[in-house]
Protein backbone atom coordinates (compact mmCIF):
# COMPACT_ATOMS: atom_id res chain seq x y z
CA UNK A 1 0.00 0.00 0.00
CA UNK A 2 3.02 2.22 0.40
CA UNK A 3 5.34 3.91 -2.04
CA UNK A 4 3.05 5.10 -4.80
CA UNK A 5 3.15 8.82 -4.07
CA UNK A 6 6.57 9.65 -5.40
CA UNK A 7 8.52 12.24 -7.36
CA UNK A 8 9.26 12.12 -11.06
CA UNK A 9 12.98 12.68 -10.76
CA UNK A 10 13.90 13.55 -14.37
CA UNK A 11 11.80 16.69 -14.23
CA UNK A 12 12.76 17.89 -10.77
CA UNK A 13 15.19 20.78 -10.33
CA UNK A 14 18.42 19.95 -8.51
CA UNK A 15 17.54 22.30 -5.66
CA UNK A 16 14.06 20.80 -5.38
CA UNK A 17 15.52 17.33 -5.35
CA UNK A 18 17.86 18.29 -2.53
CA UNK A 19 14.98 19.68 -0.51
CA UNK A 20 12.98 16.53 -1.08
CA UNK A 21 15.89 14.37 -0.08
CA UNK A 22 16.49 16.53 2.95
CA UNK A 23 12.97 15.93 4.17
CA UNK A 24 13.31 12.25 3.40
CA UNK A 25 16.50 12.06 5.46
CA UNK A 26 15.02 13.99 8.35
CA UNK A 27 12.01 11.71 8.44
CA UNK A 28 14.30 8.68 8.57
CA UNK A 29 16.28 10.21 11.43
CA UNK A 30 13.14 11.18 13.26
CA UNK A 31 11.78 7.65 12.97
CA UNK A 32 14.99 6.33 14.46
CA UNK A 33 14.97 8.89 17.25
CA UNK A 34 11.34 8.36 18.22
CA UNK A 35 10.80 4.69 17.60
CA UNK A 36 14.18 2.99 17.48
CA UNK A 37 16.40 1.65 14.78
CA UNK A 38 13.89 -0.79 13.29
CA UNK A 39 11.39 1.99 12.72
CA UNK A 40 13.69 3.44 10.09
CA UNK A 41 12.72 0.51 7.90
CA UNK A 42 9.21 1.88 7.66
CA UNK A 43 10.41 4.97 5.83
CA UNK A 44 8.47 5.50 2.63
CA UNK A 45 7.75 8.09 -0.05
CA UNK A 46 4.17 8.54 1.08
CA UNK A 47 5.08 9.88 4.48
CA UNK A 48 7.79 12.04 2.98
CA UNK A 49 4.98 13.51 0.92
CA UNK A 50 2.92 14.01 4.08
CA UNK A 51 5.73 15.92 5.79
CA UNK A 52 6.47 17.91 2.66
CA UNK A 53 2.83 18.79 2.16
CA UNK A 54 2.40 19.98 5.74
CA UNK A 55 5.55 22.04 5.57
CA UNK A 56 4.33 23.59 2.33
CA UNK A 57 1.18 24.82 4.08
CA UNK A 58 3.00 26.16 7.14
CA UNK A 59 3.55 29.90 7.57
CA UNK A 60 7.02 29.41 8.96
CA UNK A 61 9.92 27.77 7.23
CA UNK A 62 12.57 26.27 9.46
CA UNK A 63 15.19 25.86 6.77
CA UNK A 64 17.78 23.22 5.98
CA UNK A 65 21.18 22.26 7.36
CA UNK A 66 23.93 19.76 6.60
CA UNK A 67 24.07 16.48 8.44
CA UNK A 68 25.39 12.97 8.22
CA UNK A 69 23.40 9.92 7.30
CA UNK A 70 23.89 6.59 9.02
CA UNK A 71 23.43 4.71 5.78
CA UNK A 72 25.80 6.88 3.83
CA UNK A 73 28.26 8.13 6.47
CA UNK A 74 30.96 9.48 4.19
CA UNK A 75 28.85 12.09 2.49
CA UNK A 76 27.29 15.11 4.13
CA UNK A 77 23.65 15.44 3.28
CA UNK A 78 21.04 18.13 3.35
CA UNK A 79 18.70 17.74 6.25
CA UNK A 80 15.77 19.84 7.24
CA UNK A 81 15.76 21.60 10.60
CA UNK A 82 13.41 20.66 13.41
CA UNK A 83 9.73 21.35 12.94
CA UNK A 84 6.44 19.76 13.99
CA UNK A 85 5.69 18.14 10.69
CA UNK A 86 8.45 15.57 10.50
CA UNK A 87 7.57 14.06 13.91
CA UNK A 88 3.91 14.02 12.94
CA UNK A 89 4.70 12.14 9.74
CA UNK A 90 6.82 9.72 11.76
CA UNK A 91 3.93 9.05 14.16
CA UNK A 92 1.50 8.53 11.29
CA UNK A 93 3.92 6.20 9.50
CA UNK A 94 4.43 4.10 12.61
CA UNK A 95 0.72 3.72 13.23
CA UNK A 96 -0.12 2.87 9.64
CA UNK A 97 2.70 0.39 9.26
CA UNK A 98 1.60 -1.48 12.36
CA UNK A 99 -1.96 -1.86 11.13
CA UNK A 100 -0.74 -2.77 7.65
CA UNK A 101 1.40 -5.55 9.10
CA UNK A 102 -1.49 -6.81 11.16
CA UNK A 103 -3.70 -6.76 8.12
CA UNK A 104 -1.15 -8.73 6.13
CA UNK A 105 -0.98 -11.39 8.83
CA UNK A 106 -4.75 -11.73 8.83
CA UNK A 107 -4.77 -12.10 5.03
CA UNK A 108 -1.93 -14.55 4.62
CA UNK A 109 -1.51 -18.15 5.65
CA UNK A 110 0.49 -19.18 8.69
CA UNK A 111 3.77 -19.99 6.93
CA UNK A 112 3.68 -17.09 4.55
CA UNK A 113 3.01 -14.63 7.32
CA UNK A 114 5.78 -15.96 9.55
CA UNK A 115 8.34 -13.23 8.72
CA UNK A 116 5.69 -10.58 9.29
CA UNK A 117 4.74 -12.20 12.60
CA UNK A 118 8.33 -11.86 13.63
CA UNK A 119 8.27 -8.13 12.89
CA UNK A 120 4.97 -7.42 14.58
CA UNK A 121 6.24 -7.11 18.19
CA UNK A 122 8.62 -4.32 17.15
CA UNK A 123 5.83 -2.53 15.33
CA UNK A 124 3.44 -3.08 18.25
CA UNK A 125 5.90 -1.56 20.68
CA UNK A 126 6.32 1.48 18.43
CA UNK A 127 2.58 1.74 17.94
CA UNK A 128 2.03 2.03 21.68
CA UNK A 129 4.34 5.01 21.83
CA UNK A 130 2.77 6.57 18.76
CA UNK A 131 -0.71 6.05 20.17
CA UNK A 132 0.24 8.10 23.23
CA UNK A 133 1.38 10.93 21.01
CA UNK A 134 -1.50 10.82 18.53
CA UNK A 135 -4.47 9.18 20.26
CA UNK A 136 -7.08 10.61 17.89
CA UNK A 137 -5.19 9.64 14.77
CA UNK A 138 -4.68 6.15 16.14
CA UNK A 139 -8.39 5.79 16.66
CA UNK A 140 -9.15 6.96 13.11
CA UNK A 141 -6.68 4.54 11.59
CA UNK A 142 -7.97 1.64 13.67
CA UNK A 143 -11.51 2.53 12.68
CA UNK A 144 -10.54 2.66 9.01
CA UNK A 145 -8.89 -0.73 9.18
CA UNK A 146 -11.89 -2.27 10.89
CA UNK A 147 -14.26 -0.85 8.30
CA UNK A 148 -12.00 -2.05 5.53
CA UNK A 149 -11.91 -5.56 6.95
CA UNK A 150 -15.71 -5.61 7.25
CA UNK A 151 -16.11 -4.44 3.65
CA UNK A 152 -13.78 -7.11 2.39
CA UNK A 153 -15.48 -9.77 4.42
CA UNK A 154 -18.84 -8.75 2.97
CA UNK A 155 -17.35 -8.96 -0.53
CA UNK A 156 -18.36 -5.40 -1.50
CA UNK A 157 -18.32 -5.09 -5.29
CA UNK A 158 -18.60 -1.30 -5.34
CA UNK A 159 -15.28 0.40 -6.05
CA UNK A 160 -16.52 3.56 -4.38
CA UNK A 161 -17.54 1.80 -1.18
CA UNK A 162 -14.33 -0.21 -1.05
CA UNK A 163 -12.20 2.93 -1.30
CA UNK A 164 -14.24 4.83 1.28
CA UNK A 165 -12.40 3.89 4.52
CA UNK A 166 -8.92 4.68 3.20
CA UNK A 167 -10.19 7.85 1.56
CA UNK A 168 -11.85 8.98 4.80
CA UNK A 169 -8.72 8.27 6.80
CA UNK A 170 -6.51 10.29 4.45
CA UNK A 171 -9.14 13.01 4.47
CA UNK A 172 -8.82 13.22 8.23
CA UNK A 173 -5.03 12.99 8.13
CA UNK A 174 -4.77 15.85 5.63
CA UNK A 175 -7.24 18.10 7.36
CA UNK A 176 -5.42 18.06 10.71
CA UNK A 177 -3.11 20.73 9.34
CA UNK A 178 -5.97 23.09 8.45
CA UNK A 179 -5.90 26.59 9.90
CA UNK A 180 -9.40 27.71 8.97
CA UNK A 181 -12.71 26.31 7.85
CA UNK A 182 -12.15 26.97 4.18
CA UNK A 183 -8.77 25.31 4.17
CA UNK A 184 -10.17 22.38 6.10
CA UNK A 185 -12.79 21.75 3.42
CA UNK A 186 -10.21 21.85 0.66
CA UNK A 187 -7.81 19.60 2.55
CA UNK A 188 -10.56 17.11 3.31
CA UNK A 189 -11.43 16.87 -0.35
CA UNK A 190 -7.79 16.66 -1.33
CA UNK A 191 -7.10 13.93 1.22
CA UNK A 192 -10.21 12.01 0.28
CA UNK A 193 -9.27 11.83 -3.38
CA UNK A 194 -5.64 11.10 -2.60
CA UNK A 195 -6.62 8.26 -0.28
CA UNK A 196 -8.99 6.96 -2.90
CA UNK A 197 -6.19 7.03 -5.46
CA UNK A 198 -3.80 5.20 -3.13
CA UNK A 199 -6.36 2.53 -2.31
CA UNK A 200 -7.32 2.03 -5.95
CA UNK A 201 -3.81 1.93 -7.34
CA UNK A 202 -2.90 -0.65 -4.73
CA UNK A 203 -5.92 -2.68 -5.85
CA UNK A 204 -4.85 -2.46 -9.51
CA UNK A 205 -1.32 -3.42 -8.56
CA UNK A 206 -2.55 -6.51 -6.71
CA UNK A 207 -5.21 -7.41 -9.26
CA UNK A 208 -3.48 -10.42 -10.79
CA UNK A 209 -2.16 -11.73 -7.51
CA UNK A 210 -5.57 -11.37 -5.84
CA UNK A 211 -7.24 -13.15 -8.75
CA UNK A 212 -4.87 -16.09 -8.53
CA UNK A 213 -5.13 -16.35 -4.77
CA UNK A 214 -8.85 -15.66 -4.74
CA UNK A 215 -8.34 -12.68 -2.41
CA UNK A 216 -10.61 -9.68 -2.22
CA UNK A 217 -10.19 -7.12 -4.98
CA UNK A 218 -12.80 -4.47 -5.80
CA UNK A 219 -11.87 -4.32 -9.50
CA UNK A 220 -12.11 -8.09 -9.89
CA UNK A 221 -15.50 -8.12 -8.17
CA UNK A 222 -17.05 -5.10 -9.85
CA UNK A 223 -16.01 -6.33 -13.30
CA UNK A 224 -16.75 -9.99 -12.59
CA UNK A 225 -13.24 -11.13 -13.49
CA UNK A 226 -12.43 -14.82 -13.81
CA UNK A 227 -9.02 -16.44 -13.52
CA UNK A 228 -7.41 -16.94 -16.94
CA UNK A 229 -9.57 -14.45 -18.82
CA UNK A 230 -6.72 -12.29 -20.08
CA UNK A 231 -8.91 -10.21 -22.36
CA UNK A 232 -11.18 -9.13 -19.52
CA UNK A 233 -8.11 -8.49 -17.36
CA UNK A 234 -6.67 -6.14 -19.97
CA UNK A 235 -10.04 -4.44 -20.30
CA UNK A 236 -10.20 -3.95 -16.53
CA UNK A 237 -6.72 -2.49 -16.49
CA UNK A 238 -7.71 0.01 -19.16
CA UNK A 239 -10.83 0.87 -17.21
CA UNK A 240 -8.84 1.28 -14.00
CA UNK A 241 -6.81 4.06 -15.61
CA UNK A 242 -10.01 6.09 -15.96
CA UNK A 243 -10.89 5.62 -12.32
CA UNK A 244 -7.39 6.64 -11.26
CA UNK A 245 -7.37 9.65 -13.56
CA UNK A 246 -10.63 10.84 -12.06
CA UNK A 247 -9.09 10.78 -8.55
CA UNK A 248 -5.96 12.59 -9.68
CA UNK A 249 -7.93 15.27 -11.46
CA UNK A 250 -9.96 15.86 -8.29
CA UNK A 251 -6.78 15.98 -6.18
CA UNK A 252 -5.33 18.61 -8.47
CA UNK A 253 -8.53 20.62 -8.50
CA UNK A 254 -8.43 20.77 -4.70
CA UNK A 255 -4.70 21.39 -4.60
CA UNK A 256 -5.08 24.39 -6.88
CA UNK A 257 -7.33 26.06 -4.32
CA UNK A 258 -4.78 25.81 -1.51
CA UNK A 259 -2.36 28.53 -0.48
CA UNK A 260 1.00 26.84 -0.90
CA UNK A 261 3.87 28.72 0.74
CA UNK A 262 6.78 26.66 -0.60
CA UNK A 263 7.72 23.44 -2.37
CA UNK A 264 5.02 24.02 -4.95
CA UNK A 265 7.39 22.73 -7.64
CA UNK A 266 8.02 19.46 -5.81
CA UNK A 267 4.36 18.94 -4.94
CA UNK A 268 3.27 19.59 -8.50
CA UNK A 269 5.99 17.30 -9.75
CA UNK A 270 4.54 14.55 -7.56
CA UNK A 271 0.90 15.20 -8.41
CA UNK A 272 1.26 15.98 -12.10
CA UNK A 273 4.10 13.72 -13.09
CA UNK A 274 5.20 11.32 -10.37
CA UNK A 275 1.79 9.84 -9.63
CA UNK A 276 0.74 9.70 -13.31
CA UNK A 277 3.93 7.88 -14.18
CA UNK A 278 3.47 5.41 -11.31
CA UNK A 279 -0.10 4.91 -12.42
CA UNK A 280 1.00 4.29 -15.99
CA UNK A 281 3.44 1.62 -14.86
CA UNK A 282 0.98 -0.07 -12.54
CA UNK A 283 -1.80 -0.13 -15.11
CA UNK A 284 0.58 -1.52 -17.73
CA UNK A 285 1.26 -4.34 -15.29
CA UNK A 286 4.90 -3.55 -14.60
CA UNK A 287 4.26 -4.26 -11.00
CA UNK A 288 7.78 -5.50 -10.47
CA UNK A 289 9.10 -2.11 -11.39
CA UNK A 290 7.07 -0.49 -8.65
CA UNK A 291 7.31 -3.07 -5.92
CA UNK A 292 11.01 -3.76 -6.38
CA UNK A 293 11.72 -0.11 -6.91
CA UNK A 294 10.55 0.41 -3.35
CA UNK A 295 14.13 0.59 -2.17
CA UNK A 296 13.38 3.97 -0.79
CA UNK A 297 16.70 4.22 0.93
CA UNK A 298 18.66 4.43 -2.29
CA UNK A 299 16.68 7.45 -3.44
CA UNK B 1 -51.12 23.81 -2.56
CA UNK B 2 -52.23 20.30 -3.31
CA UNK B 3 -51.99 19.04 0.26
CA UNK B 4 -53.54 20.53 3.35
CA UNK B 5 -51.57 22.75 5.68
CA UNK B 6 -47.89 21.89 5.11
CA UNK B 7 -47.06 22.68 8.74
CA UNK B 8 -49.59 20.15 9.86
CA UNK B 9 -48.06 17.54 7.61
CA UNK B 10 -44.71 18.04 9.30
CA UNK B 11 -46.33 18.23 12.73
CA UNK B 12 -45.03 21.70 13.63
CA UNK B 13 -46.62 25.09 14.17
CA UNK B 14 -46.24 27.93 11.65
CA UNK B 15 -43.90 30.00 13.87
CA UNK B 16 -41.30 27.25 13.94
CA UNK B 17 -37.80 28.42 13.04
CA UNK B 18 -36.14 27.29 9.83
CA UNK B 19 -34.00 24.85 11.79
CA UNK B 20 -37.04 23.37 13.49
CA UNK B 21 -38.72 22.88 10.12
CA UNK B 22 -35.62 21.19 8.85
CA UNK B 23 -35.33 18.97 11.89
CA UNK B 24 -38.98 17.96 11.71
CA UNK B 25 -38.65 17.24 8.04
CA UNK B 26 -35.57 15.08 8.50
CA UNK B 27 -37.18 13.18 11.31
CA UNK B 28 -40.25 12.45 9.17
CA UNK B 29 -38.19 11.57 6.14
CA UNK B 30 -36.19 9.11 8.17
CA UNK B 31 -39.33 7.54 9.55
CA UNK B 32 -40.92 6.97 6.17
CA UNK B 33 -37.75 6.13 4.31
CA UNK B 34 -38.33 3.38 1.71
CA UNK B 35 -35.56 1.33 3.31
CA UNK B 36 -37.86 0.79 6.28
CA UNK B 37 -40.50 -0.63 3.97
CA UNK B 38 -38.61 -2.99 1.74
CA UNK B 39 -40.92 -5.89 0.74
CA UNK B 40 -43.56 -4.49 3.07
CA UNK B 41 -47.15 -4.76 1.76
CA UNK B 42 -47.66 -1.15 2.89
CA UNK B 43 -44.67 0.20 0.99
CA UNK B 44 -46.76 2.22 -1.47
CA UNK B 45 -48.48 3.95 1.47
CA UNK B 46 -45.12 4.90 2.87
CA UNK B 47 -44.18 6.27 -0.52
CA UNK B 48 -47.31 8.38 -0.62
CA UNK B 49 -46.53 9.69 2.82
CA UNK B 50 -42.98 10.47 1.78
CA UNK B 51 -44.24 12.38 -1.22
CA UNK B 52 -46.60 14.37 0.96
CA UNK B 53 -43.76 15.27 3.33
CA UNK B 54 -41.52 16.30 0.44
CA UNK B 55 -44.22 18.54 -0.99
CA UNK B 56 -44.99 20.08 2.38
CA UNK B 57 -41.35 20.89 3.04
CA UNK B 58 -40.89 22.22 -0.46
CA UNK B 59 -43.91 24.49 0.01
CA UNK B 60 -42.72 25.86 3.35
CA UNK B 61 -39.25 26.59 2.03
CA UNK B 62 -40.69 28.37 -1.00
CA UNK B 63 -43.18 30.38 1.06
CA UNK B 64 -40.48 31.48 3.45
CA UNK B 65 -38.11 32.44 0.67
CA UNK B 66 -40.72 34.56 -1.03
CA UNK B 67 -41.67 36.25 2.21
CA UNK B 68 -38.35 38.04 2.83
CA UNK B 69 -34.73 37.24 3.67
CA UNK B 70 -34.09 36.72 -0.01
CA UNK B 71 -30.64 38.17 0.47
CA UNK B 72 -29.27 34.99 1.96
CA UNK B 73 -30.43 32.90 -0.94
CA UNK B 74 -27.83 31.87 -3.47
CA UNK B 75 -29.08 30.37 -6.68
CA UNK B 76 -27.87 27.17 -8.27
CA UNK B 77 -24.55 27.92 -9.98
CA UNK B 78 -24.84 27.25 -13.68
CA UNK B 79 -28.33 25.96 -13.18
CA UNK B 80 -30.67 26.37 -16.12
CA UNK B 81 -33.98 28.20 -16.08
CA UNK B 82 -35.96 25.07 -15.34
CA UNK B 83 -34.30 24.54 -11.96
CA UNK B 84 -36.52 27.22 -10.47
CA UNK B 85 -39.69 25.20 -10.79
CA UNK B 86 -37.99 21.85 -10.53
CA UNK B 87 -39.57 19.25 -8.27
CA UNK B 88 -36.19 18.95 -6.62
CA UNK B 89 -36.02 22.62 -5.70
CA UNK B 90 -35.20 22.05 -2.06
CA UNK B 91 -32.73 19.30 -2.81
CA UNK B 92 -30.85 21.55 -5.20
CA UNK B 93 -30.65 24.18 -2.53
CA UNK B 94 -29.35 21.66 -0.04
CA UNK B 95 -26.65 20.53 -2.44
CA UNK B 96 -25.67 24.13 -3.09
CA UNK B 97 -25.52 24.78 0.62
CA UNK B 98 -23.15 21.84 1.05
CA UNK B 99 -25.64 19.67 2.94
CA UNK B 100 -24.79 16.70 0.81
CA UNK B 101 -25.83 13.93 3.15
CA UNK B 102 -29.26 15.47 3.77
CA UNK B 103 -29.77 15.82 0.05
CA UNK B 104 -28.75 12.23 -0.50
CA UNK B 105 -31.21 11.01 2.10
CA UNK B 106 -34.02 12.88 0.38
CA UNK B 107 -33.03 11.66 -3.04
CA UNK B 108 -32.96 8.08 -1.84
CA UNK B 109 -36.49 8.64 -0.59
CA UNK B 110 -37.77 9.15 -4.12
CA UNK B 111 -39.40 5.91 -5.26
CA UNK B 112 -37.43 4.09 -7.95
CA UNK B 113 -40.30 4.27 -10.42
CA UNK B 114 -40.45 8.07 -10.45
CA UNK B 115 -36.73 8.75 -10.81
CA UNK B 116 -36.20 10.94 -13.86
CA UNK B 117 -33.15 12.41 -15.57
CA UNK B 118 -32.92 15.22 -13.04
CA UNK B 119 -32.95 12.74 -10.18
CA UNK B 120 -29.98 10.91 -11.72
CA UNK B 121 -28.20 14.20 -12.27
CA UNK B 122 -28.72 15.32 -8.67
CA UNK B 123 -27.81 11.95 -7.23
CA UNK B 124 -24.71 12.06 -9.43
CA UNK B 125 -23.88 15.49 -8.03
CA UNK B 126 -24.23 14.22 -4.48
CA UNK B 127 -22.03 11.20 -5.17
CA UNK B 128 -19.51 13.41 -6.90
CA UNK B 129 -19.34 15.70 -3.88
CA UNK B 130 -18.83 12.71 -1.62
CA UNK B 131 -15.96 11.59 -3.81
CA UNK B 132 -17.75 8.46 -5.06
CA UNK B 133 -16.52 9.21 -8.53
CA UNK B 134 -17.42 5.92 -10.23
CA UNK B 135 -21.07 5.95 -9.21
CA UNK B 136 -21.29 9.67 -9.95
CA UNK B 137 -20.04 9.04 -13.48
CA UNK B 138 -22.65 6.32 -13.97
CA UNK B 139 -25.47 8.55 -12.72
CA UNK B 140 -24.47 11.48 -14.94
CA UNK B 141 -24.33 9.08 -17.84
CA UNK B 142 -27.87 7.87 -17.12
CA UNK B 143 -29.15 11.44 -16.79
CA UNK B 144 -27.70 12.29 -20.20
CA UNK B 145 -29.20 9.18 -21.76
CA UNK B 146 -32.63 9.98 -20.36
CA UNK B 147 -32.52 13.63 -21.40
CA UNK B 148 -29.88 14.10 -24.12
CA UNK B 149 -30.79 17.73 -24.77
CA UNK B 150 -30.14 19.03 -21.25
CA UNK B 151 -26.93 21.05 -21.20
CA UNK B 152 -26.57 20.96 -17.42
CA UNK B 153 -26.36 17.17 -17.35
CA UNK B 154 -24.22 17.10 -20.48
CA UNK B 155 -21.71 19.56 -19.01
CA UNK B 156 -21.33 17.54 -15.82
CA UNK B 157 -20.88 14.32 -17.74
CA UNK B 158 -18.39 15.80 -20.19
CA UNK B 159 -16.34 17.29 -17.39
CA UNK B 160 -15.99 13.92 -15.69
CA UNK B 161 -15.20 12.28 -19.01
CA UNK B 162 -12.46 14.80 -19.60
CA UNK B 163 -10.99 14.10 -16.16
CA UNK B 164 -11.05 10.37 -16.74
CA UNK B 165 -9.30 10.68 -20.09
CA UNK B 166 -6.59 13.14 -19.18
CA UNK B 167 -6.33 13.20 -15.39
CA UNK B 168 -5.57 16.92 -15.58
CA UNK B 169 -1.81 16.41 -15.40
CA UNK B 170 0.95 16.96 -17.92
CA UNK B 171 1.77 13.86 -19.96
CA UNK B 172 5.08 12.31 -18.92
CA UNK B 173 7.64 11.15 -21.47
CA UNK B 174 5.65 12.55 -24.36
CA UNK B 175 7.94 14.19 -26.92
CA UNK B 176 5.31 16.86 -27.57
CA UNK B 177 5.31 18.13 -23.97
CA UNK B 178 7.26 21.24 -24.89
CA UNK B 179 4.59 22.19 -27.41
CA UNK B 180 7.10 22.33 -30.31
CA UNK B 181 9.04 19.23 -31.31
CA UNK B 182 11.39 18.70 -34.22
CA UNK B 183 8.46 17.35 -36.16
CA UNK B 184 6.43 20.51 -35.49
CA UNK B 185 9.28 22.69 -36.74
CA UNK B 186 9.51 20.77 -40.03
CA UNK B 187 5.80 20.69 -40.69
CA UNK B 188 5.59 24.38 -39.78
CA UNK B 189 8.30 25.22 -42.30
CA UNK B 190 6.61 23.16 -45.00
CA UNK B 191 3.32 24.96 -44.31
CA UNK B 192 5.06 28.32 -44.47
CA UNK B 193 6.64 27.27 -47.74
CA UNK B 194 3.26 26.35 -49.18
CA UNK B 195 1.82 29.71 -48.13
CA UNK B 196 4.74 31.58 -49.69
CA UNK B 197 4.34 29.63 -52.91
CA UNK B 198 0.68 30.54 -53.08
CA UNK B 199 1.69 34.19 -53.18
CA UNK B 200 4.41 33.67 -55.73
CA UNK B 201 7.36 33.53 -53.31
CA UNK B 202 9.37 30.58 -52.03
CA UNK B 203 10.72 29.79 -48.54
CA UNK B 204 12.38 26.44 -49.23
CA UNK B 205 13.70 26.52 -52.78
CA UNK B 206 14.06 22.74 -53.20
CA UNK B 207 10.35 21.93 -52.74
Describe this structure in words.
Chain A has 12 helices and 2 strands. By secondary structure, chain A is mainly α. Chain A has one domain (9-65, 78-298): Farnesyl Diphosphate Synthase (Orthogonal Bundle). In chain A, helix 1 crosses helix 2. With 207 residues, chain B is mostly helical. In chain B, helix 2 packs antiparallel against helix 3 and helix 4 packs antiparallel against helix 5 (100-108). Chain B folds into 3 domains: 1-73, Helix Hairpins (Orthogonal Bundle), CATH 1.10.287.110; 79-169, Alpha Horseshoe (Serine Threonine Protein Phosphatase 5, Tetratricopeptide repeat); 176-207. Chain B has helices at residues 6-10, 18-31, 43-66, 89-96, 100-108, 117-130, 133-146, 151-166, 182-198. Chain B is elongated and about 90 Å long. At the A-B interface, helix 6, helix 7, helix 10 and helix 11 of A face helix 7 and helix 8 of B.
Level-1 CATH class name of the largest domain in chain B: Mainly Alpha
SSE series of chain A: HHEEHHHHHHHHHH
Helix content of chain B: 55-70%
Number of strands of chain A: 2
Distance between the termini of chain A: 19 Å
Would you tell me which CATH topology of chain A applies? Farnesyl Diphosphate Synthase
CATH A-level architecture of the largest domain in chain B: Alpha Horseshoe
Rg of chain B, please? 27 Å
- Proportion of residues in extended strands of chain B: under 5%
**Helical element count of chain B?**
9
Largest interface: A-B, 31 and 19 residues
Main beta-sheet strand count, sense and barrel state of chain B? none
